[in-house]
Amino acid sequence: MAQRDHKDGQQHGHAHTHEHGSAHHHHHAPEVTEGNARAVGFAAILTGLFMLAEVAGGLVSGSLALLADAGHMLTDFGALAMSWLGFRLARRPADWRRTYGFDRFSVLVAFVNGLALFVIAAIICWEAFERLAAPAPVTGSVMLMVAAGGLLVNLIALKLLAGGDRHNLNIRAASLHVMGDLLGSVAAIGAALIIMATGWTPIDPILSILVALIILRGALQVARESAHILLEGAPEGLEANRVASDLTGHVADVMEVHHVHAWSISQRRPMLTLHARVTPGADHAAVRAGIRRRFEQEFEAEHVTIEVEEGVAPSGECDSGTEQCC
C-alpha cells in the first residue's frame, strides 16, 4: 500500500505542540471501472427500447401489469441513464474546489434511485386498487407474449449488471430497478396464464401489488445505505467507540483516543481523523506508525489523519494547554 506521512509541528498560542501524521492506504482516484459504466449503459438501452414495446402491448391487451411494468421501465431507463452519468462524472479528477472529486455523485444517484423506487411502488399500488374496484377486460395472449419478451430483456440486463461491482451502491440500485422489472414480467406472465385459463382478471392487479411490495424492500435498503454516506455516517467497523477502544488496547503509549471522526466519500473510500493522547516522553513518530499498522491489520481506511498530543488529562476535562476538550 502506498503511504505518505505529513509531519507538521504547529505552535499554538497556548504553547502546546501538535504533530500530525496521515496514512493514505490507497490512491485518491475514485474507484470507477469502465465495466460498471458499460454495463449500466447497455442495460439502459435495452430497457428503453423494450419499454416502448411494453407500452404498446399494455394498451392493446388492456393489462395493468404490463402498463405498470412499462411505467416502471420508463423510470428505470431514467435511473439507469443517471447511473451511467454518475459513473462518468465520478471518473473526473479532483480539483481545487472539489478536493474529493465527483466520486460521491454516484452515491447521490443511488439515493435518488432508491426514492424513485418508492414512488414507482406507490403508483403501481394506486393503479392496482383502482383496477380491483373497477375490473377491466384483459387479452391474456398478447399480455403473455409481451411479458415473455420483457422477461428476456430483463434477464439480459441483469446479466450485464452482474458483471459490475456488486458492492457498488449505484450498481446495486440499478440492479434493483432491473430486478423489479424482471419480477413485474414474471407477475405479468403468471397473470396472463391464469387469465387465459380461468378468465379471472383480478389476478392482474393483485400480482402488481405483490411486485410493488418486493420493490419497496430493496428500495429501503439502498436509500438507507446511501443516505448514511451522504449524512457523513461512520462506515461499518469504523465507529468512534470501537476505534478508540481498539487503539488504546493495542498501540503502545496511547493513553486516550478522542475527536474521532469517520466518514466515507463512497462505499470504497472511507476516511478518518483522530487525536491520540500519549504518555509523556513517548516517541510520536513511533506512535503514529503503530496506529497506522493497526489500521492496516484491523481496519480498512483509505485516508487516516492522526494528531498526537502529549500529556495527561482526566477524561472529559480540558488540558490546560489544549484548545479543545477531550
Multimerization state: single chain
Proportion of beta-strand residues: 5-15%
Q: What Rg is obtained from the alpha carbons, in whole angstroms?
A: 27 Å
Q: How many E-type strands?
A: 5
Low-confidence stretches: 1-32, 314-326
Let me know the average pLDDT: 77
Helix content: 55-70%
InterPro entries: Cation_efflux, Cation_efflux_CTD, Cation_efflux_CTD_sf, Cation_efflux_TM, Cation_efflux_TMD_sf, CDF/SLC30A
Keywords: Ion transport, Membrane, Transmembrane, Transmembrane helix, Transport, Zinc, Zinc transport
Region (Disordered): 1-30
Biased composition (Basic and acidic residues): 1-22
Explain how this protein is built.
Strands 1-2-5-4-3 form a five-stranded mixed sheet. It is 59% helix and 12% strand. Mean pLDDT is 77; it is low at 1-32 and 314-326. It is an alpha+beta fold and 326 residues long. It has helices at residues 34-61, 64-90, 105-133, 140-162, 169-198, 203-230, 240-250, 284-298, and strands spanning 10-11, 17-24, 254-264, 270-278, 303-310. Helix 1 (34-61) runs antiparallel to helix 4. The chain starts with 9 loop residues before the first strand and ends in a 16-residue tail after the last strand. The chain has eight helices and five strands. The protein has two domains: 10-28 and 234-310, Alpha-Beta Plaits, CATH 3.30.70; 34-230, Cation efflux protein transmembrane domain (Alpha-lytic protease prodomain-like), CATH 1.20.1510. One of its GO terms (molecular function) is zinc ion transmembrane transporter activity. Pfam families: Cation_efflux (PF01545), ZT_dimer (PF16916).
